[in-house]
Design a protein that fits this description.
CATH topology: Alpha-Beta Plaits
Low-confidence stretches: none
Mean pLDDT: 93
CATH class: Alpha Beta
Helix content: 25-40%
Radius of gyration: 12 Å
Strand content: 35-45%
CATH architecture: 2-Layer Sandwich
Number of helices: 2
Order of helices and strands: EHEEHEE
Structural class: alpha+beta
Strand order of the largest sheet: 4-1-3-2-5
Shape: globular
Largest sheet: 5 strands, mixed
Length: 92
Amino acid sequence: MDDLTRRFRVTGKVQGVFFRHSTRLEAERLGVRGTACNLPDGSVEVLAAGSAAAVESLRLWLHRGPATARVDSVLELEPAAGLQFAAAFEIR
C-alpha cells in the first residue's frame, strides 16, 4: 500500500504544552512517520506520512491534541514536493 503524505498547521494554545511531544507519541502509536515543529507565529506544523487510515487518525487527533492544549483549527496545506521522512516521527 502506498503512503499518503499530509501537511497540517495547528493553531491555538499549541506551544509550551507538550503538543509536539504528544503528537510524536500518537504518530508512533499509529505507525506514522514525519515531523512536528513550532512555527514563529505560535502554531505547530505537522508533516505526516503513512497509510491513509493512520494519517487520517492522526489528523483527527490533532483536532484534540493533548489535554494541556487548546486547538483552535487544523488546516491542511499542500505538502512540498519531494518531501522525505526518516523511519520515525521527529520533533524539530
